[in-house]
Amino acid sequence: MAEKFFKYHGLGNDFVILDRRSGGQDVDPELARKLCDRHRGVGADGVLVLRDATRGAARMIIYNADGSVPEMCGNGVRCAAKYLVDRQREKPDHIDIETDSGPIRCRLHYREESVDEVEVAMGPAKLVDSTLPSAQTGSPFLEQELPGYPGLKGSAVSLGNPHLVIFAQPLEAIETLGPRLEDHPLFPQQTNVELVNQTGSGLRLRVWERGVGLTQACGTGACAAAAAAVALGRAPSSEWLTVELPGGVLRVRVEPELKAVLMRGPAIFAFEGCF
Q1: Residue 125, CA distances (Å) to 110, 119, 122, 213, 263 in order
Q2: Residue 39, domain extent
Q3: pTM surpassing 0.90?
Protein backbone atom coordinates (compact mmCIF):
# COMPACT_ATOMS: atom_id res chain seq x y z
CA MET A 1 0.00 0.00 0.00
CA ALA A 2 1.13 3.54 -0.72
CA GLU A 3 2.14 5.65 2.26
CA LYS A 4 1.42 9.36 2.57
CA PHE A 5 4.26 11.79 3.23
CA PHE A 6 4.25 15.48 4.10
CA LYS A 7 6.91 17.96 2.95
CA TYR A 8 7.83 20.87 5.26
CA HIS A 9 10.68 23.33 5.54
CA GLY A 10 12.15 25.78 8.00
CA LEU A 11 13.88 28.59 6.07
CA GLY A 12 14.56 26.18 3.20
CA ASN A 13 15.94 23.39 5.42
CA ASP A 14 13.47 20.78 4.15
CA PHE A 15 12.09 17.53 5.50
CA VAL A 16 9.86 14.62 4.58
CA ILE A 17 7.55 13.80 7.50
CA LEU A 18 6.24 10.25 7.91
CA ASP A 19 3.52 9.92 10.54
CA ARG A 20 3.81 6.44 12.00
CA ARG A 21 2.19 7.03 15.37
CA SER A 22 -0.49 4.38 14.83
CA GLY A 23 1.62 1.29 15.15
CA GLY A 24 3.91 2.04 12.22
CA GLN A 25 7.55 1.02 12.24
CA ASP A 26 10.66 3.13 11.95
CA VAL A 27 12.27 3.48 8.52
CA ASP A 28 15.69 2.17 7.55
CA PRO A 29 18.62 4.29 6.30
CA GLU A 30 18.16 3.07 2.72
CA LEU A 31 14.58 4.36 2.53
CA ALA A 32 15.64 7.67 4.10
CA ARG A 33 18.33 8.09 1.43
CA LYS A 34 15.86 7.29 -1.34
CA LEU A 35 13.27 9.77 -0.08
CA CYS A 36 15.88 12.52 0.27
CA ASP A 37 17.31 12.01 -3.22
CA ARG A 38 16.51 15.23 -5.11
CA HIS A 39 16.61 13.54 -8.52
CA ARG A 40 14.94 10.17 -7.92
CA GLY A 41 13.00 10.74 -4.69
CA VAL A 42 10.94 13.42 -2.97
CA GLY A 43 14.04 15.50 -2.19
CA ALA A 44 14.93 16.72 1.31
CA ASP A 45 17.70 17.39 3.78
CA GLY A 46 16.20 14.77 6.09
CA VAL A 47 13.32 12.49 7.03
CA LEU A 48 11.33 13.00 10.25
CA VAL A 49 9.60 9.85 11.48
CA LEU A 50 6.89 10.49 14.09
CA ARG A 51 6.20 7.64 16.53
CA ASP A 52 4.02 7.25 19.62
CA ALA A 53 5.47 8.91 22.71
CA THR A 54 5.13 8.46 26.45
CA ARG A 55 5.99 12.07 27.36
CA GLY A 56 4.77 14.24 24.54
CA ALA A 57 2.65 14.60 21.44
CA ALA A 58 5.04 12.38 19.45
CA ARG A 59 8.55 11.00 19.34
CA MET A 60 10.60 12.42 16.47
CA ILE A 61 13.33 10.28 14.91
CA ILE A 62 15.56 12.12 12.46
CA TYR A 63 17.36 10.72 9.42
CA ASN A 64 19.90 12.81 7.55
CA ALA A 65 20.06 12.66 3.77
CA ASP A 66 22.89 10.11 3.98
CA GLY A 67 20.83 7.82 6.23
CA SER A 68 22.66 8.69 9.45
CA VAL A 69 20.70 9.52 12.61
CA PRO A 70 21.49 12.81 14.41
CA GLU A 71 20.40 13.47 17.96
CA MET A 72 18.48 16.70 17.33
CA CYS A 73 17.34 19.07 14.58
CA GLY A 74 16.06 22.55 15.44
CA ASN A 75 14.35 23.28 12.13
CA GLY A 76 12.98 19.75 12.06
CA VAL A 77 11.33 19.99 15.46
CA ARG A 78 9.61 23.24 14.43
CA CYS A 79 8.25 21.53 11.31
CA ALA A 80 7.10 18.53 13.33
CA ALA A 81 5.32 20.82 15.81
CA LYS A 82 3.46 22.62 13.02
CA TYR A 83 2.47 19.34 11.39
CA LEU A 84 1.11 17.91 14.65
CA VAL A 85 -0.89 20.96 15.68
CA ASP A 86 -2.26 21.99 12.29
CA ARG A 87 -3.85 18.54 11.97
CA GLN A 88 -5.75 18.59 15.25
CA ARG A 89 -8.79 20.50 16.44
CA GLU A 90 -7.22 21.92 19.60
CA LYS A 91 -4.85 24.88 19.29
CA PRO A 92 -2.60 24.67 22.38
CA ASP A 93 -0.02 27.28 23.31
CA HIS A 94 2.67 24.60 23.47
CA ILE A 95 3.40 20.92 22.82
CA ASP A 96 6.25 18.62 23.84
CA ILE A 97 8.11 16.43 21.36
CA GLU A 98 10.47 13.62 22.36
CA THR A 99 13.88 13.44 20.65
CA ASP A 100 17.08 11.46 21.12
CA SER A 101 18.49 14.44 23.04
CA GLY A 102 15.47 14.58 25.38
CA PRO A 103 11.99 16.13 25.42
CA ILE A 104 11.66 19.48 23.63
CA ARG A 105 9.00 22.05 24.49
CA CYS A 106 7.65 23.99 21.52
CA ARG A 107 5.67 27.21 22.07
CA LEU A 108 3.30 27.93 19.20
CA HIS A 109 2.48 31.24 17.53
CA TYR A 110 -0.54 31.28 15.22
CA ARG A 111 -1.78 33.21 12.23
CA GLU A 112 -5.36 32.55 11.11
CA GLU A 113 -5.62 29.33 13.14
CA SER A 114 -2.45 27.91 11.58
CA VAL A 115 0.96 27.67 13.25
CA ASP A 116 3.12 30.47 11.86
CA GLU A 117 6.23 30.40 14.08
CA VAL A 118 7.51 28.02 16.72
CA GLU A 119 9.63 28.96 19.73
CA VAL A 120 11.72 26.01 20.85
CA ALA A 121 13.30 25.50 24.28
CA MET A 122 16.54 23.91 23.09
CA GLY A 123 17.90 23.19 26.58
CA PRO A 124 21.41 24.17 27.69
CA ALA A 125 24.36 24.68 25.39
CA LYS A 126 27.24 22.52 26.61
CA LEU A 127 30.94 23.19 26.31
CA VAL A 128 31.91 19.89 27.92
CA ASP A 129 30.30 16.84 26.34
CA SER A 130 31.17 13.35 25.14
CA THR A 131 30.77 14.44 21.48
CA LEU A 132 33.23 17.37 21.78
CA PRO A 133 37.02 17.66 22.14
CA SER A 134 36.38 18.30 25.84
CA ALA A 135 35.59 14.58 26.19
CA GLN A 136 39.36 14.01 26.25
CA THR A 137 40.46 17.05 28.25
CA GLY A 138 37.52 17.87 30.50
CA SER A 139 37.95 21.55 29.55
CA PRO A 140 35.98 23.68 27.05
CA PHE A 141 37.44 24.03 23.56
CA LEU A 142 36.96 27.76 22.98
CA GLU A 143 38.74 29.82 20.30
CA GLN A 144 41.51 27.26 20.05
CA GLU A 145 43.63 26.37 17.05
CA LEU A 146 42.48 23.28 15.18
CA PRO A 147 45.20 20.65 14.78
CA GLY A 148 46.18 20.38 11.13
CA TYR A 149 44.88 23.89 10.33
CA PRO A 150 47.50 26.45 11.43
CA GLY A 151 45.95 29.78 12.40
CA LEU A 152 42.37 28.51 12.20
CA LYS A 153 40.61 28.77 15.56
CA GLY A 154 37.25 27.34 16.53
CA SER A 155 34.91 26.67 19.44
CA ALA A 156 33.10 23.39 20.17
CA VAL A 157 29.50 23.51 21.42
CA SER A 158 26.85 20.83 21.93
CA LEU A 159 23.13 21.50 21.46
CA GLY A 160 22.38 17.81 21.84
CA ASN A 161 24.56 17.38 18.74
CA PRO A 162 28.16 18.56 18.14
CA HIS A 163 29.12 21.86 16.49
CA LEU A 164 32.35 23.54 15.53
CA VAL A 165 31.88 27.32 15.39
CA ILE A 166 34.47 29.44 13.58
CA PHE A 167 34.39 33.24 13.55
CA ALA A 168 35.91 35.78 11.17
CA GLN A 169 36.34 33.57 8.11
CA PRO A 170 34.82 34.23 4.66
CA LEU A 171 31.44 32.53 4.70
CA GLU A 172 31.98 31.05 1.24
CA ALA A 173 34.90 29.05 2.65
CA ILE A 174 32.31 26.69 4.19
CA GLU A 175 32.16 24.90 0.83
CA THR A 176 35.75 23.67 1.25
CA LEU A 177 36.24 23.75 5.02
CA GLY A 178 32.90 22.13 5.88
CA PRO A 179 33.48 18.66 4.39
CA ARG A 180 37.06 18.56 5.71
CA LEU A 181 36.25 19.66 9.26
CA GLU A 182 33.13 17.46 9.56
CA ASP A 183 35.49 14.49 10.03
CA HIS A 184 38.08 16.24 12.21
CA PRO A 185 39.57 13.72 14.67
CA LEU A 186 38.85 16.01 17.63
CA PHE A 187 35.16 15.09 17.26
CA PRO A 188 34.49 11.40 17.97
CA GLN A 189 31.10 11.41 16.20
CA GLN A 190 31.91 13.96 13.45
CA THR A 191 30.57 17.50 13.74
CA ASN A 192 28.43 20.19 12.18
CA VAL A 193 30.49 23.20 11.06
CA GLU A 194 29.46 26.87 11.23
CA LEU A 195 31.34 29.81 9.75
CA VAL A 196 30.12 32.99 11.44
CA ASN A 197 30.49 36.73 10.84
CA GLN A 198 29.14 39.37 13.21
CA THR A 199 26.74 42.00 11.86
CA GLY A 200 26.34 44.66 14.51
CA SER A 201 24.39 42.96 17.28
CA GLY A 202 23.52 39.95 15.12
CA LEU A 203 25.21 37.04 13.39
CA ARG A 204 25.43 35.85 9.81
CA LEU A 205 26.45 32.24 9.15
CA ARG A 206 26.60 29.33 6.78
CA VAL A 207 26.40 25.75 7.95
CA TRP A 208 27.80 22.44 6.80
CA GLU A 209 25.53 19.82 8.39
CA ARG A 210 26.97 16.49 9.43
CA GLY A 211 25.50 13.84 7.13
CA VAL A 212 23.78 16.38 4.86
CA GLY A 213 26.21 19.01 3.54
CA LEU A 214 25.38 22.64 2.85
CA THR A 215 21.88 23.62 3.97
CA GLN A 216 19.77 26.75 3.66
CA ALA A 217 19.39 26.87 7.44
CA CYS A 218 20.23 24.92 10.59
CA GLY A 219 18.43 25.56 13.87
CA THR A 220 20.95 23.90 16.17
CA GLY A 221 23.75 25.56 14.17
CA ALA A 222 22.23 28.99 14.75
CA CYS A 223 21.93 28.21 18.47
CA ALA A 224 25.50 26.91 18.68
CA ALA A 225 26.81 30.04 16.96
CA ALA A 226 24.88 32.28 19.37
CA ALA A 227 26.06 30.26 22.38
CA ALA A 228 29.69 30.48 21.22
CA ALA A 229 29.30 34.24 20.71
CA VAL A 230 28.00 34.63 24.26
CA ALA A 231 30.68 32.34 25.75
CA LEU A 232 33.41 34.37 24.00
CA GLY A 233 31.95 37.74 25.02
CA ARG A 234 31.09 38.62 21.44
CA ALA A 235 27.34 38.90 22.15
CA PRO A 236 25.21 39.57 25.25
CA SER A 237 23.23 36.91 27.08
CA SER A 238 19.50 37.21 27.85
CA GLU A 239 18.80 39.13 24.64
CA TRP A 240 17.23 37.98 21.38
CA LEU A 241 19.93 37.83 18.70
CA THR A 242 19.15 37.97 15.00
CA VAL A 243 20.84 35.07 13.21
CA GLU A 244 20.86 35.36 9.42
CA LEU A 245 21.20 32.20 7.32
CA PRO A 246 20.98 31.77 3.52
CA GLY A 247 17.32 30.73 3.87
CA GLY A 248 16.25 33.54 6.20
CA VAL A 249 16.38 34.72 9.80
CA LEU A 250 16.08 32.94 13.13
CA ARG A 251 16.03 34.59 16.54
CA VAL A 252 18.06 33.04 19.34
CA ARG A 253 18.28 33.89 23.03
CA VAL A 254 21.06 32.49 25.23
CA GLU A 255 20.71 32.70 28.99
CA PRO A 256 23.67 33.38 31.33
CA GLU A 257 26.19 30.55 31.65
CA LEU A 258 24.53 28.94 28.60
CA LYS A 259 21.98 27.33 30.93
CA ALA A 260 19.14 27.66 28.41
CA VAL A 261 18.80 28.49 24.72
CA LEU A 262 15.58 29.57 22.98
CA MET A 263 15.10 29.62 19.22
CA ARG A 264 12.19 31.11 17.30
CA GLY A 265 11.45 30.84 13.59
CA PRO A 266 8.94 29.82 10.92
CA ALA A 267 7.77 26.39 9.81
CA ILE A 268 6.18 26.04 6.38
CA PHE A 269 4.03 23.29 4.81
CA ALA A 270 5.08 22.69 1.20
CA PHE A 271 3.06 19.73 -0.17
CA GLU A 272 1.97 16.16 0.47
CA GLY A 273 1.97 13.01 -1.63
CA CYS A 274 2.36 9.23 -1.61
CA PHE A 275 5.19 6.87 -2.33
Answers
A1: 28, 16, 8, 23, 12
A2: 4-121+266-274
A3: yes
